[in-house]
Amino acid sequence: MQPKPNKIFWNLVFVGIIAALFTLIYLSTSRINYNWNWERVVPYLIDTQPEIINAPLDGDIVKDAEGTLILQSVSGDELMDLSHFKNLKVTAGDLVFEGDTLAEKSQWKLGTLSKGVIVTIQLSVISLVFAIVIGMFLALMRLSSNIALRKLAVSYIELIRGTPLLVQIFIVYFFIGTVLDLERFTSGVVALSMFTASYVAEIIRAGIQGIHKGQMEASRSLGMTYPQSMSYVILPQAFKQVLPPLAGQFINLIKDSSLVSVIAITDLTKAGREVVSGTFAPFEVWITVALLYLLLTGSLSWAIQALEKRLSVSD
């Protein structure tokens, strides 16, 4: 019998390697004489700057009959109730002019980078749905006995896979988008969907061909039509086989979505460029952007692994 590996020893080896890598990174960064300013990045993740409440017109700060502090206009009309503001900058008897600060209202809102993450998720999810649908049709066309359909599918797949995604984005946005009057976001979704669908089609085709031909013959002998056999017998089995490569393609889609920033879609990458220009902290910003992408891809990878385990249990 093969001896069992010493788990404690090899876990310590893993920790040692990771510690060595972090030490190497630290020593490398210390040699470039760079001042790290991580605090500059935080407001672009969660913005906690208070909202400034300004006076809409000239007036006086007075108390009404109930003792409530209000802003009263010169003519005597009540302009604003100030009782619900905690951080008041004025007191009763003050004379204020239009634009003066009356109070600060505590708040938090998503920063530029967090908004970029949301746009990236929207782009990826919508493109993923369309890529699966288009890829499914392309895979079935690829396996069709109809020569025209098969050659059309092969031509599309080879054309899309053989040209850079960046070029395709420019073509979709400046040519197709101009003709059809598409918005930037829509153009980005179209380009990502078309590109990813070509890879999804080949993955699904390989999965379908991996199912034994006897499965189709058996289902047809039971009286099922070809679409019924494909929907109820072949595709469910193929889905389990193609789930890992599909997961890898979906992760690539999230990373590929960064290219749509070239057509001024404020995704995570473009948001990172904007933040760099405003903070002059390039290393901190791009490391944060990389970690946010890692969070997205890692979450998707974890979800796919959980789905795989669930499907394996159901077998």
Indicate the overall shape: elongated
What is the count of helical runs?
9
Q: Segments where pLDDT lies below 50 for 5+ residues?
A: none
Q: What is the rounded Rg?
A: 29 Å
- Return the CATH architecture of the largest domain: Orthogonal Bundle
The largest β sheet comes out as: 4 strands, antiparallel
Q: Distance N terminus to C terminus? A: 30 Å
Structural class: alpha+beta
Helix proportion range: 55-70%
Strand arrangement across the biggest beta sheet: 5-4-3-7
CATH topology group of the largest domain: MetI-like fold
Q: Which CATH class of the largest domain?
A: Mainly Alpha
Strand content: 5-15%
- What's the CATH H-level homologous superfamily of the largest domain? MetI-like
The topology string of helices and strands comes to HEEEEEEEEEHHHHHHHH
| Mean pLDDT across every amino acid position | 86
Domain ABC transmembrane type-1: 117-304
Main location: membrane
GO molecular function: transmembrane transporter activity
Pfam families: BPD_transp_1
List keywords for this structure.
315 residues, OB fold (Dihydrolipoamide Acetyltransferase, E2P), MetI-like fold, 2 domains, 4-stranded antiparallel β-sheet, 3-stranded antiparallel β-sheet, 9 strands, transport, AA_ABC_transptr_permease_3TM, membrane, amino-acid transport
Report on the architecture of this protein.
This protein has 315 residues and is α+β, with helices and mostly antiparallel strands. The protein has two domains: 50-106, OB fold (Dihydrolipoamide Acetyltransferase, E2P), CATH 2.40.50.100; 112-314, Orthogonal Bundle (MetI-like fold). It has helices at 7-31, 112-142, 147-161, 165-180, 184-209, 213-221, 226-256, 268-279, 282-314, and strands at residues 46-47, 51-54, 59-63, 69-73, 78-81, 87-88, 95-96, 101-105, 109-110. It is elongated and about 90 Å long. The mean pLDDT is 86. Part of the binding-protein-dependent transport system for glutamine; probably responsible for the translocation of the substrate across the membrane. Belongs to the binding-protein-dependent transport system permease family. HisMQ subfamily. Residues 117-304 form the ABC transmembrane type-1 domain.
